[in-house]
Specification:
With 629 residues, the protein is an alpha/beta fold. Helices cover 26% and strands 21% of the residues.
Length: 629
């Protein structure tokens, strides 16, 4: 008798049912009596999210899915996923919730950046290599989202109406190719309905096609909170996430057994698949490890720089302006040229990168001492004030960042349950992701010193879901503690002296049950009265202008679709005016999906950069200067 059959024979019905839902946010449910461990799941496609999300140790940030698709290089993508496999191990994980192979069926879909392409064949082949790179290192891949989840608008309720030919030729095809070539150990069902039936319980795709025609032997995992009613236990779903079980609870599953059509044979099939996953990862023989670490590996950095460079696409190059040669002065312009936009919003961005090289930094590093590089933002595109530059924070010991302490209860008292020193001041906690505290009643203090670079009027803001206050230089600056402030951003101005260190303290507390709590400190240093005009003046002095036109996580994200294809803010006007001021203008398109280019005929060059990971700036410089062709 095989080990799986032997374990299955020893399990009680209650133990089997317990495995059909997660234990909590990132873990399955084990059976301690039989030494069956839980396995740990980790987001996401372009960087591994730790158990505590942004409060976990840092992770490597890879180019996003659409950038990897643009490489057309399966071997290179396999190397990138080798990096991700190492990162999953560093975060004590066993399965990566990736790759995403949904199809670019509309250019404004909020999650396009995370997916490979509009072409099913390309998506399937890139996914095959991505999966292979993970699983050859013992980390499971969870291909998602199955099926026809190609917009974010009303994704938990909308129904994708798809005829059979379209379903098979477009939506199922990347999954079919990847399963045939690489056999991912897991498939994630999607939030939406398909032809009126929720995808997590749609028998035609999960049972008839996936587990039937394709003979798929892995597990089917629900998307997080992507289960909806009493029919969930009856179909092809094997494990409901997160836990504890709602529609895969013992009560609901036993009811399905009593009333049908669920049978104990059906439960055994689900549990056998889950045990099979544990066997593939070696967890039935080796206990899981628990410590998360950051590993900023030089070999990883090399792979990610290579991938980022190969992802970049040259769309226009009038009179061979690129690669740059014999230039003495470069103007770099754009709201995200200095502070890089490297991934979209949502679950795939819930981690802190080891580091990020911005376009400006990459160009400066490559230009060296003989080429002058100037910078101007030209305009802003933020919806809420951006977080302060990390280097502006320090603690009393001189370390970069603020002292952070988490406490049980709302009184900021007692022994700290979690401490850290971090410059990260944009916290979002999903479900049970707050370290070491009561998730329904906790408080946080971040404090240290803030040293501005510029003298003048600075803007600070607090926003979030919860109750918070900002103290600056010993005084209450922003009170965000009224119930009516939930979700709002409150902005205050203060005059500061550049180079002077000011005490700063953020207080936050939460009480009540919620799957989402957050607090964000925003900052805007003194600004020119005419950012656009400053950029034009800079452009006129330069031999070449590099304008970085961007989307960021506020505009391109999981959970909503874009309203149009425009670059937000004044970016289109900025590009037109810069191009008029300097004929040698190259536009670098720093987006995760398609945007309108009304200025395309007016500029000398267009480079599609994508949201290109932690090495984005270096890779851009490699291409602009001809080191990578």
């Amino acid at each position: 008798m095989s080990k799986i059959k032997d374990l299955l024979a020893q399990m009680t019905l209650e133990e089997k049912i317990s495995m059909l839902a997660g234990f909590e946010l990132w873990f399955s449910t084990g059976v301690p009596r039989l030494n069956i461990p839980a396995f740990r799941m980790a987001d996401g496609p372009n960087g591994v999210r730790g158990i505590w999300s942004e409060m976990s140790p840092t992770s490597a940030a890879t180019p996003v899915g659409i950038a990897l698709g643009a490489t057309w290089n399966p071997d290179l993508v396999e190397k990138v996923s080798n990096v991700l496999a190492d990162e999953v191990k560093d975060k004590a994980g066993h399965i990566l919730l990736a790759p995403t192979v949904n199809i670019h069926r509309t250019p404004i879909a909020g999650r396009n950046f995370e997916c490979f392409a509009e072409d099913p064949y390309l998506s399937g082949m890139i996914a095959s290599s991505y999966i292979k790179g993970l699983q050859e290192k013992g980390i499971g891949a969870c291909i998602k989202h199955f099926i026809a989840n190609d917009q974010e608008f009303e994704r938990n309720s909308m129904s994708s109406e798809v005829d059979e030919r379209t379903l098979r030729e477009i939506y199922l095809e990347p999954f079919r190719i990847a399963i045939r070539n690489s056999n991912p150990w897991a498939v994630m069902s999607s939030y939406n309905r398909v032809n009126g039936v929720y995808a997590c319980e749609y028998d035609h795709t999960l049972l008839e096609i996936l587990k039937g025609e394709w003979n798929y032997d892995g597990i089917v995992i629900s998307d997080w909170y992507g289960t909806y009613d009493l029919n969930v236990p009856n179909g092809g779903l094997d494990i409901e996430m997160p836990g504890p079980g709602r529609w895969m609870s013992e009560e609901v599953v036993k009811r399905a057994l009593d009333e049908g059509p669920l049978t104990e044979e059906g439960i055994n099939n689900k549990v056998s698949r889950l045990l099979g996953f544990l066997e593939k990862t070696g967890l039935l023989d080796t206990p899981p490890h628990k410590n998360e670490v950051a590993n900023n590996n030089p070999k990883h950095r090399k792979v990610l720089r290579e991938a980022a460079g190969e992802a970049i696409v040259l769309l226009k190059n009038k009179k061979d302006l690129l690669p740059l040669k014999k230039v003495k002065r470069i103007a770099v312009i754009g709201p995200h040229a200095e502070r890089a936009s490297i991934f979209g919003g949502g679950s795939s961005s819930g981690f802190r990168p080891h580091y990020v090289v911005s376009p400006l930094e990459g160009i400066k590093n490559r230009a060296g001492k003989n080429i002058k590089v100037d910078y101007a933002p030209g305009c802003h595109i933020f919806k809420t004030l951006p977080t302060p530059a990390p280097e502006l924070f320090s603690n009393a010991e001189g370390r970069l960042g603020l002292n952070l302490s988490l406490f049980n209860g709302t009184e900021f008292s007692g022994p700290a349950a979690f401490t850290d020193v971090t410059p990260f001041v944009d916290h979002g906690w999903f479900y049970v992701s707050v370290p070491n505290v009561n998730q329904d009643s906790f408080s946080m203090i971040q404090e240290g010193l803030f040293t501005p670079n510029e003298s003048g009027t600075h803007k600070f803001s607090l926003s979030g879901v919860g109750w918070s206050k900002l103290y600056f230089n010993g005084k209450l600056l922003i009170d965000h503690s009224n119930d009516t402030d939930m979700g709002r951003e409150i902005i205050k101005e203060v005059k500061l002296e550049g180079g002077k260190a000011y005490p700063i303290r953020i207080e936050f507390y939460w009480k009540g049950s919620s799957i989402w709590r957050s607090v964000k400190l925003g900052h805007l240093p003194p600004q020119s009265e005419d950012l656009l005009d400053d950029a034009i003046k800079l452009a006129k002095k330069a031999d070449v202008v590099i304008v970085v036109g961007s989307l960021n996580a506020e505009w391109e994200a999981e959970g909503f679709d874009r309203v149009d294809m425009k670059l937000p803010g004044q970016q289109n006007e900025l590009i037109k005016r810069v191009a008029k001021a300097n004929k040698n203008t190259v536009v670098v398109v720093n987006t995760g999906s398609a945007v309108e280019m009304p200025w395309a005929d007016q500029v000398a060059g267009i480079v599609q950069l994508w949201l290109n990971g932690q090495e984005m700036g270096n890779a851009l410089a490699d291409v602009l200067f001809g080191d990578v062709t």
